[in-house]
């Protein structure tokens, strides 16, 4: 019976080795599938990123013309307003300076309206 028992133990050991080998192969297969999935996901991410960058560049190129036109319009308006302010300054500066001098030099002392006569 010991030979038969030895043979049974030997069979169990071989089956255990085979099972361990199958488990190891399954783990390696799983690891390989995870690597493949990561690689595939990175490729998809890069493709998506590239497509969005191209889309943004097209959008930006389509808006560049309107941006430069808007900038030119703002520059023109600024120039017109600056010219108007400069002309207004030139025509009114003498009058303003004279009014300031008159106020400073012609002081009329008066009692404050809140001051009561005692």
From TrEMBL:
The residue ranges flagged as biased composition, category Polar residues, are 63-72
As one GO molecular function, the record gives: ATP hydrolysis activity
Annotated segments matching region Disordered: 57-77
GO cellular component, as recorded: vacuolar proton-transporting V-type ATPase, V1 domain
Fetch the InterPro entries from UniProt. Answer: V-ATPase_G (IPR005124)
- Tell me if RNA-binding is a UniProt keyword of this record: no
* UniProt keyword list: Hydrogen ion transport, Ion transport, Transport
The organism's place on the tree of life at top rank: Eukaryota
* Protein family: Belongs to the V-ATPase G subunit family.
Assembly, in brief, is: V-ATPase is a heteromultimeric enzyme made up of two complexes: the ATP-hydrolytic V1 complex and the proton translocation V0 complex.
Role played: Subunit of the V1 complex of vacuolar(H+)-ATPase (V-ATPase), a multisubunit enzyme composed of a peripheral complex (V1) that hydrolyzes ATP and a membrane integral complex (V0) that translocates protons. V-ATPase is responsible for acidifying and maintaining the pH of intracellular compartments and in some cell types, is targeted to the plasma membrane, where it is responsible for acidifying the extracellular environment.
The entry's protein name is: V-type proton ATPase subunit G
């Amino acid at each position: 019976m010991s030979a038969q028992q030895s043979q049974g133990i030997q069979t169990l050991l071989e089956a255990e080795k085979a099972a361990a080998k199958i488990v190891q192969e399954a783990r390696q297969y799983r690891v390989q599938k995870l690597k493949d999935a990561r690689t595939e996901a990175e490729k998809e991410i890069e493709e998506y990123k590239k497509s969005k960058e191209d889309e943004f560049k097209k959008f930006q190129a389509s808006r560049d013309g309107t941006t430069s036109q808007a900038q030119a319009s703002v520059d023109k308006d600024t120039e017109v307003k600056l010219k108007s302010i400069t002309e207004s300054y030139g025509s009114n500066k003498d009058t303003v300076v004279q009014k300031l001098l008159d106020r400073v030099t012609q002081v009329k002392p008066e009692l404050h309206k809140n001051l009561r006569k005692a």
